Model the fold of this input.
Amino acid sequence: MGRVGVCVWAVAGAALTVAGCGGDPPADEGDATTSQVVTTGAATPTPGASGGMPTGDDADVSVDSTSGSSGAGSALSSSSSDDDGTSTGENGSTDTGQTTGEALDCVNIPPLAVEYELVTGHVDSEDFVFDDAGNMVQIVFGDLLHSTYGMPPTLVFPGVGQSFSYGISILSTGEVAFAAATYVGLVGPGGSSDVLASGLSFANGVIIDQSDTIYTSEISAGRVLRIDPRTLAVEEVVSGIPGANGIAFDQYFTKLYVSTLYGFIHEVDIATSAVEVVARDVGNPHGLVLDQCDNIYFTDPTALHRIRDGVIELMVDFAVDPGPANSAVVSNMHFGSGVGGWEETSIYLMDRNNGNVLVFDIGIPGAPLPHL
Done:
């Protein structure tokens, strides 16, 4: 099946520009593109927070997957690719996309993103993660899927989890951890699937620290747990956070950020479990990511926001957006891997209504992930 399509939607004044819908990955600067201008109402981001509606956590998910993924099983390997997105540094080291060597100017950061790309051809899921081989990795209807940029998914391993999974992440070993409401599982080489912790109260978010310890949020229990995937030891990190949902680390793995279904975003000190409120009354926050300047981004499932220096900024309100993401419902989001067209300075969101991927060029790399 061919590549399905990539479009760029930019709001400027009262004109909506549609460019680059030729079906290829985003072109390098300087490449010619054909554009047309459609007159429409402007959707200019303004500071502030907007409320949202509950996400479709139990929304129907459809997939037409075929076996024989190119690079099948690459999410279960710690080796990196020499293909798109890698480069060799002056010391001979290979960069797989996570920027660590260049100092960032976090004072004069790029303007707030006011345009996005729409990448079609993917299948919707509550969460996804990028591996080091250029794949988007998902678990849909219990099957582990891979898809490259703008391409439909292929089946890697069938039946690794229950019909619906919420959070998903990758260990440095390439093993895939996932949350499935009542348990947290781990997909190993060959598609083996093990239960790491069971009897959980709506396990949702899943992230990995630099020692391959798994963290998961429990919505109904209002807490965050850490799980050692080798010893199966389970420890409570923090409790007393009702509706604990999205979770993310800062770039140093010393702070944990937790969004709640009740309009709060909390900062948790990993060493002491001390909790501070970062934002309140922000609707229904779900997905969380941080960049390497410690800006916080969160979805509220019909909007995307940024918190910079304590100020909440609305990046886009999908309820009134004049582009193709109008009425989009988004849950989780991630910075790209820097491999295979998934840019490390862009945030990728999944539109749960149709499986389209929304791409926002932030201009700052995301907080590093251990498996990249």
Remarks:
- The chain has one domain: 6-53+62-97+113-361.
